[in-house]
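Following up on my earlier thread - several people asked me to post the actual chain instead of describing it. Fair enough. Here it is, all 311 residues.
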Amino acid sequence: MNNHYSLYSSTPFKVSVGSRTFYVHADAASNKSRPFERLINGFMKEASEGTAKLEGVTPDTFDRFLQWAYKGYYTAPAPSIHEMEEDSTDDNGKERVYDEKEQHLEVEEEATMKSIPPIPEEPERPPSHWSHKNGKKKTKPGKRGMFDGWRETTTSPESTPASRQSLKESFIECKPIQRRHSIDIPQPRSNKDKGEDYTEVFLCHAHIYVFAERYDIQELKLLALEELHETLAIFTLFEERTRDIVALLQYAYANTVKLSYIDNELRSLLADYIGFEMATLMKDPEFKNVMIEDGGDMLGDFMAMVAKRIH
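Reply from S.P.:
Thanks for posting it. Predicted structure:
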């Protein structure tokens, strides 16, 4: 009660972001970030005037930071809906003709896929990388709970083949820690149709991650990473939606520092995702271009991820 009273009774601080102006209780921002603490309570001009202008941040990103500062979580935008034209031609450009047998097989295949039960959770699961950030000790490679960049896997690379399915299972099985602190955090929704554009959804989390990294807000940075992971884990990558992923990759690699595969958590997460969606992504020429941009950083991260799983 006293902490809340102190927060809401603190002096309002004016923040200009792009064309928008925000008024935030000084303690709400300064208690979350050392750079903001110096900006608001330090000896700079902004502190004495009670106002600051932030560059390189979108108003929506700062708005979501304030959501998190006051409520403990932020909400992502809804996906855009586009009407997609059905492609009625085959690979040779000829008009595709469906007979009743082919239609029946497609319906049967869809029903079979829906009947596949979800991967059961293990009764005991080792702590993820996120719990490691909260003080857990990482284990040695080759043993249960092997530390692996942005998360820990449950098996060693020596015992698990680097198949698409094993990479996907390893990616999906990671469980978030920060979201558990608030039962009010909305669950991400999965896409059902190729017309659902998730570009802004993905970029929202990436923007928050970059913002939190810049202003040294580790809890928010971790939450953004978890939110992006949770969304990617249930995202169906239709061929028509590869550009959603390409836009995410371009932003992430343009706005994060080149570090080792393990040290850069966002890049590491994306390299793991590429690992099991490579076949679909490679059908997009733009993805191939992105893979070799900026000196091939993305390709290097992807190869590092593969190497860890085959040696």
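The radius of gyration is 22 Å. That should answer part of your original question.
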